[in-house]
Amino acid sequence: MPPLETPVPATGLFTVAWLLIAIPALSAAILLLVGRRADRWAPYLGAIAPLISFALGLVYFVQMLGRDVATRAVSVPLYNWISSGRWNINVGLLIDQLSIVFVLLITGVGGLIHVYSIGYMAHDDRRRRFFAFLNLFVAAMLLLVLADNYLVLFVGWEGVGLASYLLIGFWQYKPTAATAAKKAFVVNRVGDMGMSLAIMLMLATFGSSAFVDVNDGMPKVSSTIALIMGLLLLLAACGKSAQVPLQSWLLDAMEGPTPVSALIHAATMVTAGVYLITRSNAIYAQSPTASTVVVVVGTVTLLFGAWIGCAKDDIKRVLAGSTMSQIGYMMLAAGIGTAGYAYAIFLLLVHGFFKADMFLGAGSVMHATNDEVDMRHYGALRRMMPITFVTFAAGYLAIIGFPFFSGFYAKDHIIEVAFEHSAVVGGLAMLGAGITAFYMTRLMLMTFYGAKRWQEGVSPHESPPVMTVPLVFLGIGSAIGGLVLNNWIVGWLAPAVGGEPEETAGLLHVSIVGVLTLVVVAIGVGISVFVFGPRREIPITQPASQSFLTVAGRNDLYGDAFNEAVFMRPGQQLTEGLVRFENSGIDGAVNGTAAAIGGMSSRLRRVQNGFVRSYALTMTVGAAIVGLVILLGRLG
Amino acid sequence: MNPTNYIVLSAILFTIGTVGFMIRRNAIVAFMCVELMLNATNLALVTFSRMHGALDGQVAAFFVMVVAAAEVVVGLAIIVTIFRTRHSASVDDANLLKF
Fold first, then answer.
1. Buried b / exposed e across A401-429, counting CB within 10 Å, b at 16+?
2. Which residues contact A218 (CB under 8 A, 6 or more apart)?
3. pTM
């Protein structure tokens, strides 16, 4: 493996790269602190902040394009954070080929989501706070991807966790939303434990957690340490990216407002895990076992998410299942190693477009149907909502991998490298593509085709331009993203992810695997059309289920039941046992001692009887004893 | 005269004082018994001073007298006050300060 690039010191405009993070953070601070006076202009300030960051990011990107490959990665040292003993932790930013594409994704897609939110949240009284939290989310995510040190990355990581908690529980008066927010927070803590342990291990091993030091030091450490580090980072990534076994928060996170779902699923949050694995490529290069575990986790999750996606009737939950599944593909690709990193990021970028597109499309549909989320109550919406329909269709064609749409290129590459890695993994990935085609087609058919199954009083209408314009942008991105990125992304990312700049297959590249994948996808679409086609009767209420597969899928594959049985119940029993021990054992000892001393003193107290003559007797006897002791002592 | 006799006298006086203090109920008598014990002690101190040819014992005796004088002032005042309020000089009647 060629050594990773060494960043060059920042010059010119790069020295103020911290503005990328500071602008949305400042906007969040203003919106939170100014108070009700800001209510009128809050959405506009909130939406403009990430767009300014985007513009700045674009300037950096263009400058980097103009530079020589060797000098593209730039380090921006900011200040010394902790200087204690042999640890010296500096806060700095690293702008390289990997982080700049993330910056553009986060601020670009995130900015469009902000603009969309102006329309979507127009009737919410607390929208000032909403935009403040969105900006906080973007700022935290930018810190995460721009940090040049795992410890600084962790700050952003936690900021993302906080912002997601605040946003998922934004409608906190709904008990389900409050619970979902807590659940997301708690499940993420499990991952964060992995992250903090990994950082401690880095500090203990290398005396530093800077990317540069870790990358330099990795080839010298034992394979055990590399394995532990890899697994801990994977645990962290599983928490943020909702991979099995820490997937359970993602579906409940749909309780938040729809733009939040779009932001979490497309531009921020769930992509953090993939970023972490990709950024830690030097660690995984030292531990094939850890990489294999990443591949297994990715493969399991991609099927897991697809399974759930097939069984749900709630449009947002179907999309959430598909996110899990797509992130599973990215993890799978990242686990394969240098051959896969670039494709993982490729899929991540185009996924950012098509998933944001579809989530915002779903939000637009909900907007039109009085916040209905049950697809059984949709149907025939394509005529009422042409723009939403067309843009959603672009996202749909992208996710199923329709030729020349963005998902087609990204996913084909992953399935191909998966086949090169192992036939089983490749086969499962291909199966996942088929299932994806099935449930996404189901979603399209139930929402936009078939008979009208609207609830009473619902009269769907197209959303206002402030919502449809971002959809159009995202739809265009979903359609052409693959064509634009395909011949460029691998070569661009190679220096940052340690891969060799190899030839990427051309736009019209045809391989056996690619053709087979298309056949599987076509079968998936075919089955879906056969079952849910426009002529088919779709029951308005969910039919009581038939097969185990459906029941399991509707129950999120018993993820919650598993957590409840394996962690929650034993945990409660453990705490109950501890409480009992505390009550009877520790409290018993403490209270018992106190009671014994109290009892003794209440008896001893009787001596104090108020009769002076008995005191005199006591004193005399005491004095006699003392005298006797002195006398005897002297004699002895 | 043999100084031991003074010591014996002192011991006898002290014992009378102690026993009297323990068995008599009248506060004035009990008080006089205390004084008797103090003076028995003084006698012993002075005797020891004489036996050892040093002045320490005599000095100590002065201290005891001073303390005894102060004690008489306070003690008699208390006894008189108690007698006025409770119409009794029995030490057994003044037994409210207890457990």
1. bbeebbbbbbbbbbbbbbbebeeebbbbb
2. A226, A282, A283, A285, A286
3. 0.80
**Structural tokens at position B71:** 């004690």
Q: Cα–Cα distance between A352 and A478 in angstroms, integer?
A: 9
Contact A333, A490 (CB under 8 A): no
Is residue A47 within 8 Å of A117, Cβ to Cβ?
A: yes
Q: What is the dihedral of CA A76, A77, A78, A83, to 10 degrees?
A: 160
Residue A93, strand partner residues: A76, A147
Cβ of B30 within 8 Å of Cβ of A617? The answer is no
- Taking only Cα atoms into account, the Rg of chain A, rounded to an integer number of angstroms, comes to 31
Write the pLDDT tens digit of every residue in A448-460: 888 888 888 888 8
Mutate to test the interface with B, among A613, A618, A620 (most CBs of B within 10 A): A613
Cα→Cα distances B63→A239, A357, B41, B57, Å: 85, 104, 12, 10
What ipTM did this prediction achieve? 0.87
Interface test mutation site (partner A, options B24, B26, B41, B91, max chain A beta carbons within 10 A): B91
Choose the closest CB to B98 out of A610, A613, A620.
A610
How many helical (H) and strand (E) elements, i.e. helices and strands, does chain B have?
3, 0
d(CA A438, CA A446): 12
Whether B94 contacts chain A with CB within 8 A: yes
Nearest to A167 by CA among A106, A254, A236: A254
Q: Identify residue A596 by its one-letter amino acid code.
A: A
Please judge whether B97 and A610 are an interchain contact, meaning their C-beta atoms are less than 8 angstroms apart. yes
The answer to whether B25 contacts A610, with C-beta atoms less than 8 Å apart, is: no
Query: Residue A314's closest CA among A252, A236, A272, A248?
Result: A252
- Note the pLDDT tens digit of each residue in A18-28: 999 999 999 99
Rounded Cα distance, A610 and A626, in Å:
24
